What we know:
With 120 residues, this protein is mainly α. The protein has a single domain, classed as 434 Repressor (Amino-terminal Domain). 60% of the residues lie in helices and 8% in strands. The protein contains five helices and two strands, in the order ββααααα. The chain has helices at 18-33, 50-68, 73-80, 84-91, 99-119; strands at residues 4-8, 11-15. It has a two-stranded antiparallel ribbon. Strand 1 and strand 2 (11-15) form a beta hairpin. It is flat and about 50 Å long.
Amino acid sequence: MVAGTIRLKGQQFVIVPHREYQRMRDLTRELMEGEGPPLPKPDDKGNVAAVQYMRAGLARRLLRRRRQAGLTQADLARRAGVRVETLCRIEKGKMTPSTLVFDKLHRALEEAQREADDQV
């Protein structure tokens, strides 16, 4: 990543690529608003339920990437060829996608992100 600074009217500003700005904004929103399902709390020994943790982490990343691409759940589901209900359950951390569904979602997000980058 290339970043730079400029000074305007006595204030210093940092300039970053638009995609990096979006990534930082979305990460901040996720942390501040707790977007996505909550991560499971560790037990007394510091262990967490692996499947629930993985589902919540995947859901948060999927939600963030979908929003970065400017897609609604219906848009992404249509592009990926999956049911909206399936995508909704994945984003809520209620289910783990199959390898096939995960691959479809990944490809659709990659394509949408390329389209978004081309428009900037």
